[in-house]
Amino acid sequence: MSSLNKISLSSFSYSYFPIVILFLSVFNEFDFNFLKIEYFSFNFVHILIFFWTLKNPNHLGYVSIFLAGIINDVIVGIPVGVSSLCYLLICLVTAYLRNITLSPNFINDWLTFLFTIFLINSIQIIILNLIFLIEINYMSYLVNSGFTFLFYPLFFVIFNYVNKKIVIILND
Amino acid sequence: MATGRDDFVIAFRSAFLKKKDKQKFSLLTLLFLSIFVIILSNLNFKVIKFIKMGINEVVYRTSFLISAPENKIKEIDFKIKDHLKIYDNYKRIEIELETLKQKKLSNDFLKLENTKLRNLINESIQSEKILAKVLIDKESPFLKSIVLNKGSKDDIKIGMAVVDRAYLVGKVIEVNYTNSRALLLSDLNSKIPVLLEPIGMQAVSSGTGKDYGEIEYTKEEYESKINTEEIIVYTSGRGGLFKPGLPVGKIDKDNVKKINFFSDFRQLEYVNIISYTIKGSN
Q: Which residues contact A46 (CB under 8 A, 6 or more apart)?
């Protein structure tokens, strides 16, 4: 009985891992500012959404992603809905990628990720700067995109491990 | 060729409309919903304002609770750094204290003289301070702002100055019922009318997105004066937004456009929100 509980608890915690991490990261907005490294920042949420919607979309629903975007906008202080739109555009790219890919390839995914973050950051800049007339630092966006791209393989390894665990536990 | 285009259309349409087993809405629906929310959140209707305030209240409080562990780590990091620098700081503070003691005497005299002169022209500046705790200080790489635990129920209004000890750190840009958001001076969108003293020149302090500000819209001749004197930047009070004379920062000796803010925006824990009125004979 106790081992059964243990399995159901671990399967529960593993299957909700992406959603929990997504909401923790938007509420907490990890910024690493206290390290005082000029320009250093990366968008963990973009990596998380890209990976999970590509590899295992059943564990990260579109509605959760939409809500996470709303929360992110409220915390960062940008017009509500902008991040939701950007996050959902990542989902759109990954859904398209899933449809056209027969054999997944890490390099392909990584390059598509680069294209995606440039696309959504450009859309965000257009919305904030040209529509809402909010001044933004283009260099910050560029460096942020660069670091997000570079950090993808690291988180890919971690998330892949968790994803395999989820598959194993749910198949047991 | 046509087949390739058909494949693209099919894959794209499927990405937009197809729902996975556990997805309740299609991507297309949610994308439209996002655009609808962006448009809706910028309409100035009362109902939308109240909904927005409600969402802000809940999200800010939740974020404050969830950020607690990270804030603790930050606090420990700052404490360790402070302890490592303790001897150097002590020596520097000792010298500064001696200089300040001397300055205080002449400052007290000037204050009294200033009050007397204001009384002569029947003018007085009255200001009120409201102490507020910083709930969220997530400086995103794009926007620099803080969320405070005082809102409209404490008479906070948009445009009020936010100070850390005596130093200006920003202004209130959004007010909810129990909390508010202040835009920091370092934000790219921050523009504050300032006075450069002792040369007495009006200018605008503009945020750069980094931890320093920039002097804008001033005469060229100030650059030569800065090389010879130490320039302190104060709020000028122009436009009636801020109380005049709030210290902002110091002009950098090596870069005459650069303002080094007095306050460290990464370590804000409690701040004062200031409202003021100038009472005069006219």
A: A87, A90, A116, A117, A120, A148
Residues A40-59: pLDDT tens digits?
A: 778 889 999 999 998 888 88
- The partner residue sitting opposite B266, judged by closest CB among A33, A92, A132, is A33
Instruction: Say if CB B216 and CB B204 are below 8 A apart.
Output: yes
Q: What residues of A are in contact with residue B7 (Cβ under 8 Å)?
A: 100
Nearest chain B Cα distance for residue A76, angstroms: 7
**Rg of chain A taking only CA atoms, in angstroms:** 17
Q: What is the pTM of this model?
A: 0.77
Q: Using a CB-CB distance cutoff of 8 angstroms, which residues of chain B are in contact with residue A140?
A: 141-142, 209
pLDDT band at B1 (very low <50, low <70, confident <90, very high): very low
Number of domains in chain A: 1
Structure confidence by residue, pLDDT tens digits, B160-217: 889 888 888 989 988 888 889 999 988 888 888 888 877 778 888 888 887 888 888 7
Q: Which domains does chain B have, with CATH numbers?
A: 121-282 (2.40.10.340)
B:85-144 residues touching chain A, CB 8 A cutoff: 136, 138-143
